[in-house]
Design a protein that fits this description.
The protein is an all-alpha fold and 94 residues long. 87% of the residues lie in helices and 0% in strands.
Length: 94
């Protein structure tokens, strides 16, 4: 395989991850704007936003975990996934 073909294969293989990161960024921005408007009174909307964002982040981490080959990177992703799920569950108890 030529060098340019190898680079193209790597770029094409990462396209779904780039899309995922873009969606995560947009969701974070939308979440921040929504929370800025809902935080005055800690009502149902604010609580829903506080709980859903960490869980959406955990789902994104699960996709990251599945997209990384076996090795140290996958173990790091697994640790981040566990931490994010625990954070989301802890906020459910509040």
């Amino acid at each position: 395989m030529s060098n340019s073909a190898s680079v193209n294969a790597q770029v094409n293989g990462r396209a779904p991850l780039v899309r995922l990161y873009l969606v995560r960024g947009v969701l974070a921005a939308v979440w921040a704007v929504a929370f800025a408007h809902a935080h005055d009174t800690l009502g149902a909307a604010a609580i829903t936003l506080l709980v859903t964002y960490p869980l959406l982040d955990a789902v994104s981490s699960a996709v990251d975990y599945l997209s990384v080959p076996d090795g140290p990177e996958q173990r790091v992703q697994a640790g981040l996934l566990v931490w994010k799920v625990r954070r989301g569950v802890a906020q459910l108890r509040v």
